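Lab notebook: predicted structure, single chain.

Context: the supervisor wants predicted structures on file for every construct in the current expression panel, including those that have not yet been purified. This is the next one on the list. No modifications to the sequence; it matches the entry in the shared construct table.
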Amino acid sequence: MNRLKGIKIGFALCGSYCTYDKVIPAIQTLIDEGAEIFPIMSNNASSTDTRFGKAEEHKEKIEKMTGKKIITSIVEAEPLGPNNLIDILVIAPCTGNTLAKLANAITDTPVLMAAKALLRNEKPVVLAVATNDGLGLNMKNIGILMNSKNIFFVPMGQDNSEKKPNSIMSDMNLILNTVEQALQKKQVQPVIIKL
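Prediction complete. Output recorded below exactly as produced.
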């Protein structure tokens, strides 16, 4: 199974720590399909310990899987564009904070610099959303990004409509399919799904 043989993927993690148990296996799936992974973490993701695990443990696991040191600074992420190092960027989980900044052209984390670098080269950026305000204040940012060139979404739905009615979560199991379609400049469908 080499569906992604020869493809270089930037895989960026933000601070929705509760999704890491689904996101980290998605990295392995991409590796199993032949992709070379360049791991990236936001400032918070690379330094914050939570009840979902310690930052150093997550970093160690990801570096062991990918065989690469994690990009954790804007300076380290900047060459991805001019040096044309990767073919596609996946941001998973993509938090509401990152969505809002990306939609408003703010580049103040390694993840956002990686996105800017890829968009500069007209390459695809895949967003796997995980935010408690996707149907709230961040809905406008999702709309902006859905209508932006070279940005693609992993299918998403409400993950807990009774307790968190504004919360949106992508199905991390669909990252591989979304990446395959995005490499062809296509949005995998349907985008809105029942979780």
